[in-house]
Amino acid sequence: MKQPHQDQADDFPEPPRKLFRLVKPLLRERYAEELEGDMEERFCDNLNQFGGRKARSLYQLDTIKLIRPSLLKRLGGDVYLNQYGMLMNNVKIAVRQIRKHKVLSTIKIGSFAIGIAACILIALYIKQQTSYDQHYERGDQIYRMTNQWSKSGEVEYWTSMQGPLKKVLEDNIPEMEKVSRVVTWRWANAGANHIRSSAIPNNNYEKGFLYADPEILEILEVPMVSGSQSTALKMPNSLVISESKAAIYFPNQNPIGQDLILNNKDRYVIGGVMKDFPSTSHLQGDFIMTLYERKSGPGTSGWCCTNYDIYVKLNEYADKAIVEEKMLEVRNSLVMDHLKEAKVADLDEKRLYQSYYLQPVSNIFLNPEEVGDYLEHGVIELVWIFGFIAIVILSLACVNFINLSVANSTTRSKEIGLLKVVGSKRSSLIVKYLVESCIYSLISVAIGAIVAAILLPFFNVLADTAIVMPWSSASFLLLLVLTALVIGILSGIYPALVLSGFRPIEAIKGRVANGRSPLMQQGLVIMQFTATVVLIITALVLQRQFDSVMNKPLGYDREQVVNIFGLNTLKANEREALKDEMLNLSVVQNATLGDYIPVEGTKIHNRSYWQAGRKYLDPGLDAARWTVDTDYIPTMKMELVAGRNFMEGTVDSMSIILNERMVEVMGIKDPVGKRIIDMFDEEYHVIGVVKNFDFESALGSVRPLVMVAGQGQAVMSVRINSSDVAAAMASITATWDRFSPNQSARFQFMDIAFERMYKGFGRAKVLFIIFSVLSIVIACSGMFALSLYLIARRTKEISIRKVLGASVSRILKILTFGFVRLVLIAMVLAIPIAYHFTEYILEDFAYRIDVTWDIFLLGGVLATVVALATISFESMKAALTNPAQQLKDE
User: Fold this and answer.
1) 410 and 494 fall within a common domain
2) pLDDT: is 573 or 239 the higher one?
3) Could you give the percent of the chain with pLDDT greater than 70?
C-alpha cells in the first residue's frame, strides 16, 4: 500500500471508516480484506492528488459502491439477494413505460413537478417564518412581559409597561435573573437618525436605533465582537453598534470609546460592538442606546406612562405559571399603590380585569396571541393558509397520478394478464407498480426541486424574504428522497391494487373496462375541481378586497404631496426659513412642518383623555396626539366638518381639533367649545372636528385622534402644483441644499409611501393568485390526460354514431357532458366551502367587501370555461375524425 509523502506523515488524515465498518460485515470474507486495502491505497492517491476533503468524499462513494449482489454474503445458503435484481428489473420496466407513453408520462411528471416545486417553496417559506428566535441557548427562559385584559370573555394583550416596574420586578421576584426595558417605537432618538462620527461633517441616514437597559445584551444572548455584554451599556449616553455598521463608520479602527453624533446634537460613546442580529430575530437594530442613568426622555418616565416593552430571563428552575402569579401579587401589593400615587385613573377596573402574561420569545414574531406592540410581525394566518394551499396542490398532483394510472389500465391489461398467466402473484404486481409510481415521484421531485431553485429569487421578491435553497443540507436532500418515496407509495397504492386485481382471461381479452370512468375516478375529479373552484373564488375575493382598500376614500389627498425628512438636524429658525423658501417656489402650493404624517414612518404619541370634570369618574380614552401647524389641514386637503382650523400665534396654544372617531367614542354632542382634559391635567378647548382619515392602516378602523397646535421638527410635507414633477423636485432639492449642504435631501412621495404600507397584503394576494393558477394548471393537466384516454376508449362508439348520422355538435355534447357534470357538482360543493374560507380571511378587515353572489358565479364560470377549454381539443379532434378510417383501424 502506498504511503503518504514524508512531509504529510505527521498530519496524515485518516479515511472516514465509519460507513465502511457498517458495510464490511455484509461483504464476502474473501473480498473484504482485499477491498479494504485497495480503498486505503486509492485514498492515499486521492489525498495526494485532490486533498483531504475530496479524498474523504471519494472514499465514502467507494464504500457505497460496494453494496452490490456480487460482493455481498449469501442469505439462507444458496439464496442470493434476488430482491435487488427484481427491483432493478422493475425500475427498467418503469423507465420503458415512461418512454413508451410520452404524453402520459409528461403530464404525470409535469403536474407532479409543478406541485412539488410549489410545495418546496411554501415549505421553505413556512420554515423560515417559524424559525424566528430559535437561536438562543436558553430560549425557553426568555420572555416578553405583556398586559392581559380579560373582560366579557375576550382577552387582549399589549406590551406597554411603566418604567419603574423594572426595579419592582427585580426586587420582588427572585426567579427573574435579568430584566430590561426596551423602546422600539419612535420616541426621542429611537427609530431612525442622521448620524456621523465626530471626525466627519457629513450626515448619513440610518435606521435601526432602539433604547434598552444594559441587561438586554445578556437576556437576548447578543454575541459581542468587542466589549462585554455586562458592561457595554453601563455608561450614560453609551451605545452598542453592530459589526457591519462599525466597519462602515470606523474602518480598521477600534470603535470602543469613539463618538457618534445623532442629528447634529446628541453625542453617544460606543461601549461595544455586537454581532449583527440574525435575520430570524424578531428584534432588529444596528444601534442599541442605553437607558442607564438618563436624565430626560426615554428611561425617565414614571408610573404615569406606559412607554416600555419589558424583557425578562427566568432562572432554569422557574415555573412560568408561578412567576405570573407572583407578578399579579406584586401588582396588587405594590404597583397599585404607585399608580394611585401617580393619580392614574381606572384602578378598580384594572384590578378586576388586568393581569400579566409572559409571552415566550419564540412566539413574538408570528405573535399567535396577537399582542399589541410596535414591531413588524409575520402573519401566522398566512402560514396556515399557505400550508393548506401546499396540501391542496400536492393532493391535486397525487389525484392526477391516480386518475391517469387507472385510465391507462386498458393499454396495460394484456401485460397484466400475461404476467399472471406465467405465475406472477398479486403481491409482486403491487410491488412492481409501486416501484413504477416511486420512479415517477423521484423524477418529479428532482425536477420540482430544480424548478423551485430557479423560481426562488422571484419568490423571494414577492414574499419579501431571503430564503436560500439548502442544497448543502444532507437532511434536506434526505427529506426530498423520503418525500418522493412516501408520495409515490401513497399515490400509487390505489392504481397498483386496481391493476393487480384484473382477472387474467378478461385482461388478455381487453375486457377490463367498459368505457366509463369508475366512481372512484369521478370522485377524484370532483375533489380536484372543488379545490380549484375554492381557490379561484378566494383569489377573486382577495383581488376585490385589495382594490377596495387601495381605492377607498382616505379622508386626505395623497397625490402631489412630497414628504421631506431630516429636518431635526436643523435649528427651529432654520426650519421656519426653509418652509418660507419652499412656499416662495412657483411649483409649491402648500407646505407644513410636523412630525406626523398619515403613512408609515410617522412618530407615535398617545395620551389618555377625559371630558373636563370626568377624569376620576370615567375610563380614560387612549388617543393618538399629533402636533401640527396651521398649514397642515390645508396641505393634506383634509375636511373640517365642524369648527375652524388653528390660527397663527399663541391664541390656540391650548386648543385642539378632534377627529370624528374621537367625538364618537367620547360621546360628545356638539363638540366645538367643549373642554377636554388629558392625563397630565392639561385642559384644552375643542375648536374643530376633522373628518375621519386613515393614518395608521386602511385595513383597520380609524383610531381616535387629537391635534394640537405647534411646530414639528422631523418632516415637511409639500404639495406641488406642477405637472413637471422632475423640475419641481429639482427646485425643492436645490432649496434644501442651501440650508443643509452636509446632508443629502431625503424625499418620499405620499402616494408611493401609501402603497408601501400595503405591500404585505399585496404580496399575499399575488402569491395566493399564483398558487391558485398552479392548482388550476395541475387540475387541468389531469383532466386533459383523462379526457385523452377516455375518448380513445370510445373511438369505436364515436365512429358508429357518426355513421348512423350523429352530428359533430351531438358528438361534442356526448363527450363533454360527463366532464361538465362533474365540474357542476364540484361547484355546488365548493361554494359553501369558499364562502366560509373567504369569511375567515376577511374577518380582520375593518373595511371589508361583501362576498356577493356574482363572485361565486364568476368563479364557477371561470372553472367551467377552463374545464371546457381543457377537454375541447381532444373532443373536437375525435368528433371530426373520419369514421371509416377509425373503424378500419379497429
Assistant:
1) yes
2) 239
3) 87
CB neighbours of residue 469 within 10 Å = 16
Name the domain count of the chain: 5
Decide which of 32, 65, 98 is a domain's last residue: 65
Least confident of 331-345, 587-601, 839-853: 839-853
Q: Examine the domain organization and report whether 144 and 276 are in the same domain.
A: yes
Is 867:780 a contact under the CB 8 Å cutoff?
yes
Cell of 104: 402520459
Cell numbers 446634537 correspond to 265
**Are 386 and 263 found together in one domain?**
no
Q: Which of 340, 372, 404 is the last residue of a domain?
A: 372
What pLDDT is stored for residue 1 in this prediction? Answer: 40
Torsion angle of C-alpha atoms 213, 218, 223, 224, degrees rounded to 10: 60
On whether residue 73 sits in a domain, the answer given is: no
Cα angle 148-154-159, degrees, rounded to a multiple of 5: 25
pLDDT band for 434, please (50, 70, 90 cuts). confident
Same domain, 104 and 152: no
Cα–Cα distance between 151 and 139 in angstroms, integer?
Answer: 31
**Does 647 fall in a domain?**
yes
DSSP 98-112: HHHSHHHHHHHHHHH
CA 710 to mean position of chain CA atoms: 40
3-state secondary structure of 261: strand
Report the predicted TM-score, pTM, of the whole model to 2 decimal places. 0.76
Tell me, what DSSP letter sits at residue 14?
A: P
The better pLDDT of the pair 676, 820 is held by 676
Q: Note down the domain range covering 312.
A: 139-372
CA 844 to chain centre: 17
CA Rg value for the chain: 36
Same domain? 666 vs 715: yes
